[in-house]
Amino acid sequence: MRAMSWQQGLIPLAVLWTALNARADDAIPFPAALDAAAVTVDRLDSVLDYALLIGNGDVNALLYTDRGQLKLNLTKNDVWDARLDAERDPPLPTLELVKKWAFDRGATSVQGGSVILDQGVQWEGPDSYHAHPYPCPRICARLTLGAAPAEPNWIRIRAEGAQNGWEYRDGAGVMSIEGRAEASNGFAYGPLQIDTGEYPELQLKLAGTENARFYVDVMSADGQGFFGTRWQETPTETAVRTFQLPKDMLAGQLILYTWTEDGKRAENRFQEVALVGPNGKVNVDLTVKPEPTSPARLDIRRAVATVEGNDRGIPGATIRALADRNVILIDQAGSGKLEAARSRDLPEPEEDQPQPEVQTVVQQIPGDPGWAGMSFAVAVVTRGQRQAVAIVTSREAADPKAAAIQLADEALAAAPEAVVQVHEAAWERFWSKSGLELDDPVLRSMWYRNLYFLRCVVRPGAVSPGLFASLVSDGPAWHGDYHTNYNIQSTFWPLYSSNHPELSEPYDRLIVDYLPRARWLCQELFGFEGAYIPHVLFAYEPPPEACQGPTRRQYIHHVWGWTLGVAGFSAQPVWWHYKYEPSRQFLAQVAYPVVRDIADFQANFIEACERTDDGRVVLAPTVSPEHWGWTKQFERNRNGTFCLGMFRYMFQAAIEGAETLECDADKVARWQQAVTLLPDYPLSSGEPPVVVDVQDAPPIGYNISVPATPVFPSDVVTFWSPDAEKELFSRTIDQLRWNGNNAAIMLSVSRARLSMPETLPWVRGELTARLRPNGTLTLNRNEPSYGFNNFGHYTEQFAASMAINELLLQSVADVVRIFPAWPLDKPARFRQLRAQGGFLVSAACERGNVGPVRIEPTVGGRLRLLSPWPGIEAVGPDGQTLSLTPDEKGIVELDTHAGQTLEFRARS
Known about the structure:
Layout: H1 13-20, H2 31-36, E1 39-41, E2 52-55, E3 59-66, E4 69-76, E5 80-81, H3 95-105, E6 110-111, E7 114-118, E8 121-123, H4 128-131, E9 136-137, E10 141-145, E11 153-159, E12 163-169, E13 172-178, E14 184-190, E15 194-195, E16 201-208, E17 212-220, E18 225-228, E19 232-233, E20 239-244, E21 250-260, E22 266-277, E23 280-283, E24 296-299, E25 304-307, E26 317-321, E27 327-332, E28 336-340, E29 350-355, E30 358-365, E31 374-383, E32 386-393, H5 400-413, H6 416-432, E33 435-438, H7 441-457, E34 482-483, H8 487-497, H9 505-526, E35 536-537, H10 566-580, H11 584-608, H12 641-661, H13 665-677, E36 701-702, H14 723-735, E37 737-738, H15 744-753, H16 759-768, H17 800-808, E38 809-810, E39 817-818, E40 828-835, E41 839-846, E42 849-850, E43 853-857, E44 861-866, E45 872-875, E46 881-884, E47 891-896, E48 902-906
Parallel strand pairs: 36-37
Antiparallel strand pairs: 1-24, 2-3, 3-4, 4-10, 5-9, 6-7, 7-8, 10-28, 11-14, 12-13, 13-22, 14-21, 15-21, 16-20, 16-22, 17-18, 17-19, 17-21, 22-23, 24-25, 25-26, 26-27, 27-32, 29-30, 30-31, 31-32, 33-40, 34-35, 38-39, 40-41, 41-42, 41-43, 43-48, 44-47, 45-46, 45-48
Helix pairs in contact: 7-17, 8-10, 8-17, 9-11, 10-11, 10-12, 11-12, 11-13, 12-13, 15-16, 15-17, 16-17
């Protein structure tokens, strides 16, 4: 029997989450540590490195300077362009079709969206994912604060080299790059306002090194490119190159790029860059001037950004994204200008100033045959030196423009002190839930800052954020979507152990809402019941019965969409929410239906697999997440380590859920049998062996740390596993090579889970190598040569807080471990971190000793604690002392009740 939908009378998720949220102490545990985590920058002139993030979990913004102007990129979680051009998509990659690819043709490939379906037959791309920027979240608008005009200047927009230079030398603007072969950099000049009807020719006078090339883009004022030269060989002797521009366009910006053929230093020496017409030429200034900017401070305790300002036009300002309403409140010395974030693939926005003190932007987002589209409005209302910015969508109001004006106006009409007091009280409650104090100021501040960043983009009832916190462009990389083969789960990981499980509601709702489509997709791809979640999801995906066409508006990547373990991985955070905040109601209504249906898919797939001589299955076909792709005859598409780990975890979850609810005994027996059929993890051929990502593959440099995933995130190889298995995975992790992208958090937790030596310095080294001046973390090590770092502020990196938690507290396998990967000679304290079972744990260590441990059960139940001492005793709420005897593993157990406070201490 299927679970009822929310429309059929069950408690809405946001309401249920709020009701389940346990009350924390009102006081902030370590206020001095929190205050010390404030972000201070001496400049704001980079939307990546120095911009300050503010938000209330739904409305958020990046605060930065650009060419001498103070700006806010305004975003809202539910502003999504959810169109999907499904007619471009090839047929769904069914199990039958996938087998045909491998055995009739040898393999399949996806090239720029083109999919080879069969021998001699190719589905011409690009598919829906590669043809358009959408589906994707959209920037709502940009707000420029102050009256200073933008100062034309050169700014760096691309830096793929180890060295990326721009200097004015000997009468020329000299661009240089050095690093890897075929790397390029780019510098943009603007703002301009030049009509190509009057100046229709781009003229360059330049020379350079033999290994250099150049490229010029001409952009409109709203950032849309309308002309590009393509890559050109740089003349080694001074020469003039001319290019005809499209007529009747308004050039707002020029971008120059330099390319190195061999990685050695390459130079382009631009002696002149000009737009030329019948009446003369307009020369671009090739000198580089220091950009006016300003110091700023982000007080994360009170969620307020303060800009110092300067005498060159940047105003001083105090800015808050109000916690209790979707308004950004600005106190500043100067007016502001609201500008639409125009995009070529959206209708022209409506910009209006209905009253002298009111500015508005209204944007329509078209729909498609399966999605109705939406609209949103941004309103800025000014009263003296104060401004309020409100964003409202058509999902919230029939007239978003009127609603946004009213919302902003009401914020300004309220007593300023009262507005700030309510805002700060909300953040005070947030910070009171948990805290820590470490003898490591960098990791300590990183923990607080990443929780702050996460709270800026997550709150119950809001749409889940995607890959990026706020946006740096209107065409976010990878569509800014929900990648479920690693990224979106990582965003929410810190919430559970940091004692903020209520904030996981947007993720839970994303998966619950997708479940009807997941059931349909399982039938379409495999021909049996269950639920299958692919590796890419979008906001507002309609149920398949509401869609037309052979794919029913279903996008699935024909390679990475076949990583079978992703279905269970997508469900895991929902299950974690239950484990960290146990509730029978939540289990029955939310968590169990999800894990049950995915376990059914897994069991059905196992039944369809080939068997080996020992009776176990060959788990195939499947694809290692982002490695190998489809291979001839499925040579490297068998027994993937990631899938084996997640299959085991999801079966465990489904079995526990069914037994707790006392239901589905027949399913439990089937799932238990299915687990016994799974093969061992694949190993390398060398001695001593290590785990590899798929059967018969050698160890490689990984993107996702697949060989370590049974430890984390699968949670099936643990500190409590047999010694031989722990030794195998410790050796695997220690020798694992990776490209630095998607595994800093996963490997940090994996090392901590097995209490590997030197885990703390390893974690510290990897995280601090990604640290930007504004406190955010880049995807890879923070080097200019790595292009992915320039795409925005990755929400997945907010999981740094979880990596730090795992050094201090773990509860995998429902056993609480205190300081499992933290050196006891380094002072550390934490308060009210949350363990599985709903236990709030507080502890401290110094000088090699663990002090008393306080545990507060939020729901009661059996507590299992690895004793930090040879002898242990517990003091109950009545003051009575109970002597405890650890078992052979050092674990003590006792029954608890909600509301108790238990203190554990060493027994002399």
